[in-house]
Amino acid sequence: MGAKLKMVGLLTMGALAGALTTIQFTAEARNSYGPLPLEEMQQLAAVFGMIKTDYVEPVDEKKLITDAISGMVAGLDPHSQYFDKKSYKEFREGTSGRFVGVGIEIGMEDGLVKIVSPIEGSPAFRAGLKSGDLITKIDDTAVKGLTLDEAIKRMRGEPGTKVLLTIFRKNENRTFPVTITREEIHVQSVKAKMVAPGYGWIRITQFQDRTVDDFARKLEELFKQDPQMKGLVLDLRNDPGGLLESAVAVAAAFLPSNAVVVSTNGQIPESKATFRATPDDYLRRGGSDPLKKLPAALKSVPMVVLVNEGSASASEIVAGALQDQKRATLMGAQTFGKGSVQTVRPLSADTALKITTARYYTPSGRSIQAKGIVPDVWLDETAEGNVFAALRTREADLDKHLTNGPEAQADAAREKAREEARLKLEEQLAKDKNSVKPLPEFGSTDDFQLAQALNQLQGKPVMVSKNMSERKAEANAH
User: Residue 326's CB: how many other CB atoms inside 10 A?
Assistant: First the structure.
């Protein structure tokens, strides 16, 4: 079990914490429902009464009801969820791109929290913390034994409060304490830079409230650096999703006006919709259009979209739209396969229900639920082949996932491949911890897949996947 946790730690390096989801918000809960099943409701009341009177120790009534609601929702699918006061607050922080903490993107390495990158301007950045630093203690608690989520929760808190981090800096071989005052952090979900003369790279880590504004600003900066842009790489690797409107806006930046981006279909009338490349479909709160000032060349500049098994939901909407509209070449690996939309319905000021209300479809009518978007050009993770790809869980592996027409309950071949890859990796790590290196940071000079995307744009040879036939079999499994 310990070895399995180590695998997860390696896989999360460089990834922002976030749920795989595409979100819509509604102002109020719907109250239209048919008559309740009397016999089953009587059974529920009877169980409630028995627990109250017969359980070994007293149980809080509110907790029983909350647990009953949570269990009912959790039985639907992997993405529906009941939010109590605490989880609703955390969820809203995740979609807003704002939270109170120290300001670092983190992963795990050998059971310790590894700083992937301090967020520019944050308390951690000002305190001099660096990429690669390891956090060994948070206040008086040793990090060894904590999960990534537990470590994140300990570093977050109220604005103005202090947290003591014990840092081990490997390249200096020293350990030192740093006291940091927590403050509200504004996460930029978009990164961009010129990666070669005439060629830009723009990465979206998650689709949040601020994503479209940040995205438009970064694109403007790229075109100011080189108005004669020859090619652009849109990097959606390990992007777990987020807000539907943000995804529609990002796709709209590259597509002709009014082109179909995505359609949705579900049981209720509101879930039957088509979203197009128009401000009416991506401006949730009105206001000015962030895309209005973008250069016209953006509609025609040659493009590559990078995706992998961690590209899910909203990022799959963008990838599917640009692929179907023949606007970009998709490169990488088959995506996660989350083709459902969750709607957040407030139940009170502090609680809400996140419930799956629709499936989404690409412009050509494809539902990618439990399958994913298949790239035009398959790429391995490194020049030597794949390291972690077979270990990554996809939608089809999740318990209670929505099926997409006739579908086998389990893909035995994929399960076997993942288990063999996990055992091989654990064996290598047991022999030599340095034998398996974490994948390089996306956008770095060592980023193999980005190098292949540039080759594609420049008309140079591309090193395609060495496991192409195996991956095509997986793509056709659903």
Answer: 7
Residue 135, CA distances (Å) to 113, 167, 436 in order: 5, 5, 21
Look up residue 4 and give its two tokens. 């399995």
The enclosing H or E element of 342 equals strand 340-346
Question: Is residue 150 one of the residues assigned to a domain?
Answer: yes
* Best CA proximity match to 240, nearest among 421, 21, 61: 21
Structure tokens at 267: 């049981």
Neighbours of 84 (CB within 10 A): 15
Instruction: Fill in the amino acid letter for 247.
Output: A
CATH of the domain at 162: 2.30.42.10
In this structure, the answer to whether residues 170 and 233 fall within a common structural domain is no
* In contact, 229 and 222? CB cutoff 8 Å: yes
CATH of the domain at 327: 3.90.226.10
Residues 124 and 245 reside in one and the same domain: no
Host domain of residue 451: 190-255+289-336+370-401+414-474
Residues 6 or more apart from 109 whose CB is under 8 A from it? 9, 10, 13, 134, 438
Does a structural domain hold residue 81?
Answer: no
Give catalytic residues, as residue numbers: 313, 324, 338
Angle, helix 211-225 to helix 244-252, in steps of 10 degrees: 20
Band of residue 433 on the pLDDT scale cut at 50, 70, 90: low
Residue type, 5: L
- The verdict on residue 220 lying in a domain is yes
CB 59 within 8 A of CB 51: yes
Q: What was the pLDDT predicted at 407? A: 46
Q: Are 158 and 182 a contacting pair, CB within 8 Å?
A: yes
Q: Is residue 284 one of the residues assigned to a domain?
A: no
The pTM of the whole model exceeds 0.85: no
H runs (alpha helix) in 325-458:
412-431, 448-458
| 134 lies in the same domain as 224 | no
Taking residues 245-253, report their average pLDDT. Answer: 96
For residues 106 and 94, what is the distance between their CA atoms, to the nearest angstrom?
Answer: 15
The token duo for 364 is 């050509």
What is the number of structural domains in the chain? 2
Q: Are residues 319 and 388 in the same domain?
A: yes
Q: Give the pLDDT confidence score for residue 138 in this predicted structure.
A: 96
What share of the chain in percent tops pLDDT 70?
82
Model confidence band, residue 435 (pLDDT cutoffs 50, 70, 90): low
For range 221-249, the mean pLDDT: 94
